[in-house]
Every structure is written in C-alpha cells, then in structure tokens.
Automatic annotation (TrEMBL):
Any Pfam family: Aldo_ket_red
Gene Ontology MF terms in the entry: oxidoreductase activity, acting on the CH-OH group of donors, NAD or NADP as acceptor
PROSITE patterns recorded: ALDOKETO_REDUCTASE_1 (PS00798), ALDOKETO_REDUCTASE_2 (PS00062), ALDOKETO_REDUCTASE_3 (PS00063)
Protein's name in the database: Aldo/keto reductase
Gene3D superfamilies, per the entry: NADP-dependent oxidoreductase domain (3.20.20.100)
Active-site residues from the entry: 49
Domain NADP-dependent oxidoreductase: 22-257
Family annotation (CDD domains): AKR_AKR5F1 (cd19133)
Keyword annotations from UniProtKB, A to Z: NADP, Oxidoreductase
Record site feature (Lowers pKa of active site Tyr), residues: 74
Residues binding substrate: 107
Organism: Flavobacterium alkalisoli
Membership in a protein family: Belongs to the aldo/keto reductase family.
UniProt key word NADP: yes
Length: 280
C-alpha cells in the first residue's frame, strides 16, 4: 500500500475504506473485515456515522496488528468545545476499543471548533492521537485555524471528485503543509457519474472501471481517497488501482469535467449550519 507523509512525519495510506452510511452494525463489521482481508489498512469513520462500535469489533476480529492499521474518526458539531471534545474522544475510543487513534478530525467548521482544536492539540501531545486534522474546512476557515493555533492540521478531508475538483484549494492547503483527503470520490453516483462517457472511455483503454480511473486520478494528484462499498467485489476493484498510470492527456481531459460546484450542499448555507447545530 502506498502512503503519503503528513506534516508531522506520520505515514498515512493513500487508499482506505470509508464507512459513511453503513448503518447496519453487522453489515459494517463484515465490510470492514472484508476490506482488511483485501489489504486495506486505513479505515475512516466518525461519531456522527453511528458505526464506531462495529468498526471496533471488526478491527479486533481481524487479527491484524494494531500498528499496521490507520484508524480515523471525527468529532461532530454538537460535541464541539474543549471539554465536550475530550468526552467525545473517550467515547469514540471506547467504542473502537483502541488505546490510541491515528487521526482525529474536527468534522465541520461549526460550533466551538476552536475549543475542539485545543482539545485535539492536548490529546496529540499526550500521545493519544498520532495526527490531528479537520474536515470540510474552506480555505478561510483553515488559514484562520492555522494562524491562531500551535499545531496545524495534518489533513483536511473535503469533497473532491471529477465534477468538483478544487485544484486551487488543494494548492493552498499543500502550501500550508495540509494534505487533502477526498470524500465522495465518486460523487455518490450523481450526474450519471458511473456512465460518464469520458471516464468510461479512459477506463476502456486500461481495462479499468470508471471508479478505478477516478481513484487513480485523485491519487496522481496527491489526494488520499476513502471510497465506500459494502460489496466485496467492489472493495477489491477499488483496491486494484496500482498497476496503471494515467497520462497527462488523460488528466487534462478529466480536468474539463469540473463544474466548480458541490454535488451535495453548500457548507456556507445558513439552513445547513442550523440543522447541524440542532436548530430549525
């Protein structure tokens, strides 16, 4: 498995399994076990996903040494603030059945995320977390956090896929030594993603699927990926991306698919923020 070096020297796998929306505990546990058996070593979850317990059970049953795995979880909006984040972290660790975490993220730039960041810094200094980062932070929020805290984020996990490529944001973050990790790499199938003519045609040349072409495109941009699937054959397919390289022509063609708009929602929409904060 290829890795990417974070700003504190920690090596993070470029490819992992995301478990967002896998809400059935038995399905989640079986999926994580199948992924680990297939060679995956990074598992990405979050307290808001409601499946940390299942992830922890799979990790324990896998038999893979803890030091070979890279486990990520996140603190949700309603648990922000210094004390709340400390409590949320302990609860996540209990559910995951872990002694330490590889990466802990502030899930959204909403609520008292400054208090949360101070808690993450302390947990990092105590050796309970190997790296700390953020998720869904736009550049102005990221630079504000970086400018006013001692430890910069190692990772910003954001929506990146062929229809929302965020090249300028990636360049900005990398200049600040923050690695980008993509969520929704396949745009959750929106905009007829899996039948896109260009991606399909590029895949045909390499005998690869649209999903494999997209993951390869992201990795060649230096972006880590955490695709989700509950199907063993697709887990294997997503893992099988290391034996081909897209040409510069391929990369430039895919760049033309960029709509410069999220396929999901606007993180700056007040109604979205109010919903996450538990207000109408």
């Amino acid at each position: 498995m290829q890795t990417i070096e974070l700003n504190n020297g920690v090596a993070m796998p470029l490819l992992g399994l995301g478990v967002y929306q896998i809400t059935d505990p038995s399905v989640c546990e079986a999926t994580v076990l199948a992924a680990i058996e297939a060679g995956y070593r990074l598992i990405d979850t979050a307290s808001a996903y409601g499946n940390e317990q299942a992830v922890g059970s799979a990790i324990k049953k896998s038999g893979v040494p803890r030091e070979e795995l890279f486990i990520t979880t996140k603190v949700w909006v309603r648990d922000t603030g210094y004390d709340n984040t400390k409590k949320a972290f302990e609860l996540s660790m209990k559910k995951l059945q872990l002694d330490y975490l590889d990466l802990y993220l502030v899930h959204q730039a909403v609520g008292d995320y400054y208090g949360s960041w101070r808690a993450l810094e302390d947990l990092y200094r105590e050796g309970k977390i190997r790296a700390i980062g953020v998720s869904n932070f736009y550049p102005e929020r990221a630079i504000d956090l970086i400018s006013h805290n001692a430890i910069p984020p190692a990772v910003n996990q954001i929506e990146v896929h062929p229809f929302y490529q965020r090249e300028a944001e990636q360049l900005f973050l990398e200049d600040k030594k923050v690695r980008v990790q993509s969520w929704a790499s396949f745009a959750e199938g929106r905009n007829n993603f899996f039948t896109n003519e260009l991606l399909w045609d590029i895949g045909r040349r390499y005998n690869k699927s649209v999903a494999q072409v997209t993951l390869r495109w992201l990795i060649q941009r230096g972006i880590a990926v955490i695709p989700k699937s509950v199907h063993r054959e697709r887990l294997m397919e997503n893992y099988d991306i290391w034996d081909f390289t897209l040409t510069l022509e391929n990369m430039e063609a895919i760049a033309d698919l960029d709509t410069r708009q999220s396929a999901f929602f606007n993180h700056r929409d007040p109604t979205i923020i109010a919903r996450w904060a538990g207000r109408k």
